[in-house]
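FORM 7B - TANDEM STRUCTURE REPORT

SECTION 1: FIRST PROTEIN
SEQUENCE AND TOKENS:
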Amino acid sequence: MINEHPDNNRSPQPYEGLLVVTIEQAVAAPLCSCHFAEGGARVIKIERSGGDFARKYDSVVKGESSYFVWANHGKESLQLDIKDPNDASLLHNILARADVFIQNLAPGAIGRAGFDTDELRARYPRLITCDISGYGESGDYRDMKAYDFLVQCESGLVAINGSPKGHGRIGVSICDIGAGMNAIIGIQRALFQRERSGLGSGVKVSLFDTAADWMTVPLMHTVYGGKAPQRVGLHHPSIAPYGGYETRDGEILAISIQNEREWLRFCSEVLQQPEVATDERFNQAEARVRNRAELDTYIEAVFSARTRQELEQTLKSADIAYGAVNSVETFAQHPQLRYRSVTLPDGAEAELVAPPIRTSDDAGTNSYRPVPAFGQHSHIIREEFAEQPSFRRATS
């Protein structure tokens, strides 16, 4: 059974005709496969006894986990024990027809269970495999447990976040999310390559490699400049003024000055002190960073004397980039925030953030496909794939 899109008059979706099979848990791999489900692929999520543990992370979405609802809508759930010979045979039947196989078990676990991805591609030449791990499949850290926060720590991300008083964890599962996005890119590349060669290929992504890529600029400052960026809270470590300042009514507005033209306008129209622009402490970008503390006294004096609304009007008139430091409660009511509804396993409706990628084919689409209950599609999938296919179906 293929879950149908709620809009029966929709245009064909980009991944229609693709069968994606996943043995996944937590965030990175589920977020990756969810992207393909949103694009029209059929995604079969294989869950062992007890289900994906992300189902139990919390229960804030009308009894369901926020993480699971976010990263698993539009999929079919199949309860399977891949170490059981009969279930293993069923999985091979499914993979024989599949286009993509994604897994994020512990390094080596999928091979020990009899589903090494290199061997799978040899057996099913058009299959694309994607292995997502914490630190990769080789090296001293290969077997380290790699939850998002731990990778943030190991990669140095927390060392450049926070305030001078202490380190700061990024408040969302950024390494998981980034690894999932990189996996999507890798699979899309493999799909394009298969169109040319007719053969599948292997994609490997790790949370640590993802975080390391993001750390390139701080790393270059350290290796080539001799000094790592310092923790500066809401400020930018290498641009000034670029940070948050409190207003008279207790709000915080963030501003960003990117070039000298903006700097001159900021001093004359916002600070109303054009002489500050030519002060030798502030008349060059690097000088402003060196003398950030002195510069902030001028800005703080102006911001603390005016309300957020007054400053927003002035900043907008001066064409200075700014943004409010919103609470999550304020963000939930943001005029630019788009929602899309989803049906939960018990039939209740919830609202998720709408996809960040919009296409011309999205017109009229206002809901996601449902979130599956644990093992909801097991019976019908077992019936469908009970027999080994006698031919390898072509992909679109």
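SECTION 2: SECOND PROTEIN
SEQUENCE AND TOKENS:
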Amino acid sequence: MAGALLKQSVGTFRVSYPGESQSVSTFIKAPQPLDAEYFRTRLLGWFDQYGRTHLPWQQDRSPYRVWVSEIMLQQTQVTTVISYFERFMQRFPDVETLAAAEQDEVLHLWTGLGYYARARNLHRAAQCVVSEHDGVFPVESVTALSALPGIGRSTAGAIIAQATGQRAPILDGNVKRVLTRLHGVEGWPGKPEVEKRLWQLAEHYTPQWRCADFTQAMMDMGATLCTRRRPSCLLCPFEADCVAHARGEEHRFPASKPKKEKPVRQTLMLMLRDGNGHVLLEQRPSSGLWGGLWGMPQFDDHEALRAWLAREMPGSIVGEQWPCFTHVFTHFRLEITPVQAHLSRRGGHPAVSGRRWYDPDQPDSIGLAAPVKALLESLSSSSLL
């Protein structure tokens, strides 16, 4: 019965057979949506037995708590997010507290989660909610909510459904994977025509009732059963309906983004220490790579590094060069070569706007990029130059 509910439509594809003088047209069936009520019943039945219902943001639900969790969960696994979410809630229990905080502290609590634009947008959005909406999230519609920084259509839908129970379809990475496999949807989901088709399917299946559970169930399906690698098809409530599984082609769906060779960039990262063992850090511009975070001065080559030291920190002595290591970003690879240096005289150095002397043994609450944090931790146990 379940398989019979996979409706079919007919489309014509031209296929050429070897040895024939002309191509022959054959009809190949393309799957259409399952009956919506059947889909919802099976999905929610599975969720009631196996779904995740004890995650921190599912307790004491509010638009604020759900919003923070959804932003953290973008590009990040649940197991990683849990501890960050709990620390974040302890420090920023409501949107007013977050809006009033310094960006440095927000980025500090985000350090290690990556994709730091999410944290900057989170901070800006909190300020918008307080200043433009009197501290109340505009959850009356996807359009109103997605007008806030860092909130797209799917994230807005997830917040509304999870926090208010209102109907709002979602299409995050997990849901895309479920739908492309279930229906054998060809093409990279980032293509507008493919994404449009997936939104149509999401709209078709999303119910008017149990919207919070349905939304969580869709995400749980992708996260725990219909995983990127080695999906647990035998445990899936839609094993008999899934086009990708019937073909034995789960690995083909969803199609990957067309690959481009990631360019490689190089940088020298200056680890300059004063006589007290403190390390010079500079705050990066608010936009761009590691925006708003604190890091070590960076240079394209040794000549530029030495010229900067002579101009900004006269009397500095360049020390040894550490082995190069690679940090991978979404669009490129950064090869980082740390270079040690120290001031020749003891004592501190006058503070300059946008710079600070950081004590690795007594860390400040500031946002640090992952490679910078790792280097500072290495320096905390090393001897002075």
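SECTION 3: OBSERVATIONS ON SECOND PROTEIN
Residues 264-380 form a domain with the Nucleoside Triphosphate Pyrophosphohydrolase fold (CATH 3.90.79.10).
The chain has two domains: 36-252, 264-380.

SECTION 4: SIGNATURE
Preparer initials: ____
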